[in-house]
Amino acid sequence: MPSRNDLISIAAREEGVGILTNPKRVAEYFSSYPAFSGKSEQAMLKVSWCQIFINWAVLKAGYPMFQRTFSEWTKNAKDNIDDGFQYIYKSKSSGYKPKPGDIYYSPLVKHKNTEHMGFIIEDRGNGYYRTLDGNAGAPGHALYGTTLWSGKKSGSLVGGLGGGVVCFNERHDNGGADIGIVGFIRLPPMIYTSNPY
């Protein structure tokens, strides 16, 4: 039966994948969401695909489709999907310590409204985390040279919101200078078998 470790292993093998390095693989991430399937490389560069990468990885690991919208998570809203994912607001009173494989939600990354999600790889305490993120890689990151953010061009491609890569990050939850985590999404306790992978 698949586990959190399987999920992390599947996601970690994708390190370095982006539009410049492996556009066919990014297209596979997009195909995990039927509404996004079949986009051109330039069209994929217009979509911030962090959640799309998460959905692809959880499906590959045997979990259900991860399809709630950001507003449904941040407002702790209920949708019509009983998918088993559980949103936990980050607060001192909750006392929740994220586990490897949990998903974090951060509306801010480096003072920018990004609506970003990624996997927790390790909770190092005091607001420090090792994460694995789709569509990431800021200036200064080891993989920044393989990104295609806005303002960069490669051949006929013009960079955009989807110009990042899958990469590990050392994050500090300081409310915005790095990330401002507002909550965690716990994986479902059950494994589904009816998924496209």
Describe this structure in words.
This protein is of the alpha+beta class and 197 residues long. The strands form two sheets. Strands 1-8-2-3-4-7 form a six-stranded antiparallel β-sheet. The model has no long low-confidence stretch (mean pLDDT 86). Helix content is 19%, strand content 25%. The protein has a single domain, classed as endopeptidase fold (from Nostoc punctiforme). Helix 2 packs across helix 4.
Write the layout of secondary structure elements.
Layout: H1 4-12, H2 23-31, H3 41-44, H4 50-60, H5 70-74, E1 86-89, E2 103-109, E3 112-125, E4 128-136, E5 153-154, E6 157-158, E7 165-172, E8 183-186
Helix pairs in contact: 1-4, 2-4
| CATH architectural designation | Alpha-Beta Complex
Output mean pLDDT. Answer: 86
Rounded Rg: 16 Å
Instruction: Report the principal-axis shape.
Output: globular
Order of strands across the main sheet: 1-8-2-3-4-7
Task: Provide the succession of SSEs.
Answer: HHHHHEEEEEEEE
Indicate how many domains the architecture comprises.
Answer: 1
**Biggest pleated sheet:** 6 strands, antiparallel
The oligomeric state is single chain
Give the % helix: 10-25%
Give the class from helix and strand content and strand pairing: alpha+beta
Kindly report the CATH topology.
endopeptidase fold (from Nostoc punctiforme)
What is the tally of helical segments?
5
Terminal CA distance: 14 Å
Give the CATH level 1 class.
Alpha Beta
Number of strands: 8
| Strand residue percentage | 25-35%
Uncertain residue ranges: none
